[in-house]
Amino acid sequence: KNEVEQSPQNLTAQEGEFITINCSYSVGISALHWLQQHPGGGIVSLFMLSSGKKKHGRLIATINIQEKHSSLHITASHPRDSAVYICAVEFKGAQKLVFGQGTRLTINP
Amino acid sequence: SAVISQKPSRDICQRGTSLTIQCQVDSQVTMMFWYRQQPGQSLTLIATANQGSEATYESGFVIDKFPISRPNLTFSTLTVSNMSPEDSSIYLCSASPWGGSPYNEQFFGPGTRLTVL
Known about the structure:
The structure holds two protein chains of two kinds.
Chain A: E1 4-7, E2 10-14, E3 19-25, E4 29-37, E5 43-49, E6 52-56, E7 59-64, E8 69-74, E9 83-91, E10 98-99, E11 103-108
Chain B: E1 4-7, E2 10-13, E3 19-25, E4 31-37, E5 44-50, E6 56-57, E7 68-72, E8 75-80, E9 89-96, E10 107-108, E11 112-116
Parallel strand pairs in B: 2-11
Antiparallel strand pairs in B: 1-3, 3-8, 4-5, 4-9, 5-6, 7-8, 9-10, 9-11
């Protein structure tokens, strides 16, 4: 079964802390996406990965294909980073995304 | 990149009525997708809509309940028919500029927040 698991489900931290959100999946993939959803519901695509590491500003995404695991890191976290972060995977042979349950991140000032 | 807009942004509807949600992309895209996000849940794919062909529905979703149109490469509609309170969700449209696998990137609309009384 094609499954995507995220951890933690909820994360509260203080401004400035280093944040890590994890995503594990069950079988081989073509691509993995990290998405950000703000309280209004709109979704922003942060990264699309098939190998290695990508960095954009304070956000870093890594993927380990052998271990079937990806992490999203946020450095110097800020209250505006508060959102739900969603991992979504395109499994090999399937032209659609399967979504994790999301991680609700709250950064307190 | 692609910018996606949805109309309406939110609506409150009566049981038994239907609502059509519009999704407009600012550039031509190959594949468009409709998702449902029930309260407190992650996204679930309803159907994939390619221009010039019938939409492909996921298990648990049927055309009579969620008819979809894709008249051109920049526009799609999703209708939620004969609504019940269980249909209260956020409905999101997304688009991928390229067909095939893997997608380069998938762009999402702002969502339509539907409440059914």
